[in-house]
Amino acid sequence: MSEQPAEAAALAAALGPLAQRIGSITYLHTVDSTNAELLRRGVTGDRAQVLIADAQSAGRGRLGRSWISPPGASLYLSLARRLRIDARQAPALTLVAGVACAEALSALGVDRIGLKWPNDLVIEARKLGGILVESATGGDGLAVVIGIGINLALPGEAAAAIDQPWTDLARVLGPAGPGRAAVAAAVLSLLLPALDEFERTGFSSFASRYAALDALRGRPVRLEDGRGGHTGLALGLAENGALRVRHEDGERRYLSGEVRVRASS
Ligand code: BTN
């Protein structure tokens, strides 16, 4: 788990004055999961803690799935912060982080980037990355760890183990595309102000930004929960970030974590 201080210093330099809003930036060669490590360290203080790893041995995905994390293939980044929000707002935080990541990728030249509710970064139905927010109770406000995985250049062996359509930045932008440090700097420079804004105003000020990136709205979807699958038409998001779906028997709203979504044809 050795640290790489030169990489951390380069990221701080790329962030400029925003780096002052970060309490610590740590790069590790390998860790089980950047989210798990920040949760173990504890989320204290007013400033964000950022952890990036070359590889994860037990990367975590949503709904208990694993996140394949070979060395250097993706950005594995977690940010921990205490937010003055209610635990009920935590699901919307995933959406806010998604907006920040998608806008950052767009600024780096990624066309047609979209968000597949609740946590996928997609390009034309191919997954480019995902977000996993975990929270811890205790102390003031809510301690959150926002984990971000963005595929940079997946080796064939790792890609073969992914059970859904995927893509990576090397395929999208070619070999001259941004490297891990540039992607991390772009993401953090939008995520840090987004967290402040979310604390002040909640999800409402992100609703139109999300809508511009919504890859599901107007599409047939299949939602799966413990009781089976339900098909319907995605109608966009409610004011609290819940997914609105029109079913044959009327509209229902789904909060993050309750369902799996598959865009169907
Ligand atoms: C998903 O799409 O299921 C969410 C994937 C989140 C992966 C990232 S990689 C960095 C951070 N550490 C983890 O263990 N998971 C997140």
Describe this protein with a few key phrases.
binds biotin; globular; about 30% helix; about 260 residues; five-stranded antiparallel β-sheet; alpha+beta; seven-stranded mixed β-sheet; 7 helices
Write up what this structure looks like:
The protein is an alpha+beta fold and 265 residues long. It has seven helices and twelve strands. It has helices at residues 5-15, 34-41, 90-107, 156-160, 169-173, 180-201, 207-211; strands at residues 22-31, 48-56, 74-83, 113-116, 120-123, 126-136, 142-151, 220-225, 228-237, 243-247, 250-254, 260-263. The strands form two sheets. A seven-stranded mixed β-sheet has the order 1-2-3-7-6-5-4, with helices on both faces. It has a five-stranded antiparallel β-sheet with strand order 11-10-9-8-12, with no helix packed on it. Strand 4 (113-116) and strand 5 (120-123) form a beta hairpin. The protein starts with a helix and ends with a strand. 41% of the residues are buried. The model has no long low-confidence stretch (mean pLDDT 92). The protein binds biotin.
